[in-house]
């Protein structure tokens, strides 16, 4: 994808549709613009997950409006949009002038050359991007100009007042671009099993705003024409029509629409908390009130509503209607979150822990500098793998840095040369590249660090690698190493047995890279075999219960809670305090394995189920089995 460039005609504002609610329905173009925007102004119906796609340095401004309640008036939004656009233009002009001063007239000419194409060419690889110090530096370091994203639910130009905001920008001479979004009038119905059109039932569809003030002396909606469409078999889709539904019912009835006409309503369409009902036009308002269906809501009037029972796929997912709290660190919760969402669950992420560097980073650096001197290197978690290769990169940066170079600029690691994607580098090292460099290869040394010390799989030399858990193995393989040993049961006791079978004995030298606060079962078991064991803390976990406390006190009804470690159990119990017993008497708690289960029981938490396979997939399977009331295959 072409980056927004430094040009006079390049947009300062992008009016972007966020889609109907489900973050996976956001367009690729919208996700790209969010990733690089310097300012994002967003509405009430934009999900937290989509807002979370913004780069961490972007200014985020909430201007949400809900129904007739004005959080920020439209005039205030327009003024804010112009203000932020002017700021972006001024910053871009300053960066453009600076580039011209550095490179001469050629750069100045470039700055005044209109952009010929901003189309989608490729999906950028964000994994290799460095984190800058500030939003302004972010744009400067990446060579992109600052710009504003105006993020609106659904599509900007379908009852989103995007046209009004575009006109304001035009009147102020501000360049803009519009990115469509999937409108909820189509998507919400689709997720409720209702096609807006269907051969033999409805050959046309009409979108109507129901947010018309009923106290107006004269309606601007042509109810007679709409009534004619409905009676002739067309579908009429109402946006924002919940509050005025009684008025809409009367208006249509006055022009001959039968009260028995099928009608359906979909609340929070495409989201895990979606709720829907099918009834008749005359009963719709009462049924919706009785079932708690309120705004945000899409209402469809017409015979297509009768297809709901046959085509309702979304609400039949195995975990639909369940709200699941994930307490795992955000870095490693994505797989669980995606799997639960695919099963229809509403997922709340509130990590009870965060991974931070170890207390003794020098010991970690010293250990990874000597990886090739060990017979075995053991990783007990994916965090340990990431910490190991992070330390290798830092050592490599130090070794290669020239006098005057800034920290972090050198990038000589397993991801390859500048411009190479992570996949390009991994392809070359995929089948365990450790054997390509002899452990005794000559090295020019500077201090305690080799000048040509590799920061990828070659650093292991001939050392073999053992892991606990498939997630650890997968993380290791992303760095180009296939583990030599992984027990079927993902616990320390099983790894000791597996390593004994693999030949670990009194002559073996073993390095264990683990969390600082881990159990000593593995260490004691290997030393009992006579092995020389070095234990190094690669990372440590800190409690971070602020977000967890917010979720727990938000009033959201939680059905299930997952625990992937003993530390998460302890942190959650601490966050709940005296309310822990009452909370877990109403919430199903799920354990990733026997060690975590033991900790749960020690805190008077009875697991609803324990994973049969001690990883993220096993944890998700445990939820499936529990709520479907039969064993998973």
Describe the structure.
The longest helix is centred in the N-terminal third of the chain and has 30 residues, at 74-103. The two termini are 43 Å apart. The model is unreliable at 106-142 and 402-451 (pLDDT under 50). The chain is globular. It is α/β, with parallel strands linked by helices and 633 residues long. The chain has 23 helices and 22 strands. The strands form five sheets. The protein has a five-stranded parallel beta sheet, sandwiched between helices.
The strand count comes to 22
Percent of residues in β-strands: 15-25%
Total number of helices: 23
Structural class: alpha/beta
- Distance between the terminal alpha carbons, to the nearest Å? 43 Å
**Rg over alpha carbons:** 29 Å
Largest sheet: 5 strands, parallel
What is the averaged pLDDT score? Answer: 83
């Amino acid at each position: 994808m072409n980056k927004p460039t430094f040009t006079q005609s390049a947009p300062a504002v992008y009016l972007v549709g966020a889609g109907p609610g489900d973050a996976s329905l956001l367009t690729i173009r919208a996700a790209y613009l969010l990733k690089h925007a310097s300012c994002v102004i967003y509405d009430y119906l934009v999900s937290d997950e989509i807002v979370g796609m913004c780069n961490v340095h972007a200014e985020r401004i909430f201007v949400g409006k809900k129904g007739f309640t004005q959080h920020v008036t439209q005039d205030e939004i327009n003024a804010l949009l112009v203000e932020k656009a002017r700021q972006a233009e001024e910053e871009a002009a300053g960066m453009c002038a600076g580039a011209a001063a550095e490179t001469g007239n050629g750069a100045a000419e470039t700055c005044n050359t209109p952009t010929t194409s901003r189309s989608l060419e490729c999906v950028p690889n964000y994994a290799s991007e460095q984190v800058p110090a500030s939003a302004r530096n972010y744009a400067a370091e990446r060579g992109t100009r600052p710009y504003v994203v105006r993020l609106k639910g659904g599509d900007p130009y379908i009852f989103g007042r995007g046209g009004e905001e575009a006109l304001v920008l035009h009147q102020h001479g501000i360049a803009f671009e519009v990115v469509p979004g999937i409108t909820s009038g189509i998507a919400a119905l689709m997720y409720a099993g209702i096609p807006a059109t269907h051969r033999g039932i409805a050959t046309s569809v009409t979108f109507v705003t129901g947010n018309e003030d009923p106290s107006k002396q004269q309606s601007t909606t042509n109810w007679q024409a709409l009534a004619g469409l409905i009676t002739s078999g067309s579908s009429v889709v109402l946006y924002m029509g919940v509050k005025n539904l009684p008025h809409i019912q009367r208006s249509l009835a006055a022009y001959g629409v039968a009260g028995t006409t099928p009608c359906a309503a979909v609340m929070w369409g495409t989201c895990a908390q979606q709720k829907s009902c099918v009834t008749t036009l005359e009963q719709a308002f009462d049924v919706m009130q009785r079932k708690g269906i309120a705004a945000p809501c899409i209402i469809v009037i017409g015979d297509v509503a009768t297809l709901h029972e046959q085509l309702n796929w979304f609400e039949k997912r195995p975990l639909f209607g369940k709200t699941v709290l994930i307490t795992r660190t955000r870095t490693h919760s994505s797989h669980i979150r995606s799997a639960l969402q695919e099963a229809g669950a509403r997922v709340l992420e509130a990590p009870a822990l965060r991974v931070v560097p170890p207390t003794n980073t020098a010991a970690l650096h010293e250990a990874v500098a000597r990886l090739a001197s060990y017979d075995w290197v053991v990783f007990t978690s994916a965090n340990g793998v990431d910490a190991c290769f992070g330390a290798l990169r830092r050592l490599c940066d130090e070794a290669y840095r020239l006098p005057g170079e800034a920290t972090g600029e050198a990038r000589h690691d397993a991801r390859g040369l500048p411009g190479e994607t992570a996949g390009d580098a991994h392809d070359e090292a995929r089948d365990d590249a450790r054997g390509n460099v002899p452990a005794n290869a000559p090295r020019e040394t500077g201090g305690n660090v080799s000048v040509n010390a590799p920061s990828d799989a070659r650093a292991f030399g001939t050392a073999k690698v053992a892991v606990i858990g498939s997630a650890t193995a997968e993380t290791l393989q992303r760095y180009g190493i296939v583990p030599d040993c992984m027990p079927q049961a993902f616990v320390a006791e099983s790894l000791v047995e597996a390593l004994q079978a693999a030949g670990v004995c009194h002559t073996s030298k073993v390095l264990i890279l683990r969390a600082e606060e881990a159990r000593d079962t593995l260490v004691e078991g290997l030393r009992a075999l006579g092995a020389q064991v070095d234990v190094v803390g690669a990372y440590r976990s800190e409690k971070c219960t602020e977000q967890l406390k917010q979720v727990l006190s938000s009033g959201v009804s939680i059905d299930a809670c997952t625990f992937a470690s003993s530390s998460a159990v302890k942190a959650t119990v601490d966050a709940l305090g005296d309310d822990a017993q009452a909370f877990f008497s109403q919430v199903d708690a799920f354990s990733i394995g026997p060690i975590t289960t033991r900790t749960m029981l020690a805190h008077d938490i009875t697991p609803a189920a324990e994973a049969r396979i001690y990883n993220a997939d096993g944890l998700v399977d445990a939820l499936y089995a529990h709520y479907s009331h039969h064993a998973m295959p």
